[in-house]
């Protein structure tokens, strides 16, 4: 995958590391038998964070990979690939 910039790549990696820490925090919460509501709030935070990362990667994909594909492949092929990608992403 090509990122628009090294800064974008590093920002994405930093977000994923933060999410990893949040998931480990949830594991600790469960080990410590913390209140279910608190665990659910943290799960929602992780879900939101991973959705944000997915959106950023999708935006990058459109700006780089899809743009490059439009120069090299047929428009129908590019559209079919993009539709398949979007359907997988929104599952």
Structure description:
This protein has one domain: Metal-sensitive repressor, helix protomer (Methane Monooxygenase Hydroxylase, Chain G, domain 1, Up-down Bundle), CATH 1.20.58.1000. Helices cover 87% and strands 0% of the residues. The chain contains three helices and no strands. The two termini are 21 Å apart. The mean pLDDT is 93.
How would you briefly describe this protein structure?
The protein is mainly alpha-helical and 91 residues long. It has three helices and no strands.
Keywords for this structure?
91 residues, 3 helices, Methane Monooxygenase Hydroxylase, Chain G, domain 1, mainly alpha
| Category by helix and strand content | mainly alpha
Average pLDDT metric? 93
Largest sheet: none
CATH architecture: Up-down Bundle
Q: What is the terminal-to-terminal distance? A: 21 Å
Number of strands: 0
Shape: elongated
CATH superfamily: Metal-sensitive repressor, helix protomer
Give the SSE string: HHH
Number of domains: 1
Instruction: Kindly report the oligomeric state of this protein.
Output: single chain
Outline the low-pLDDT stretches. Answer: none
**Total DSSP helices:** 3
How much is the radius of gyration in Å?
A: 17 Å
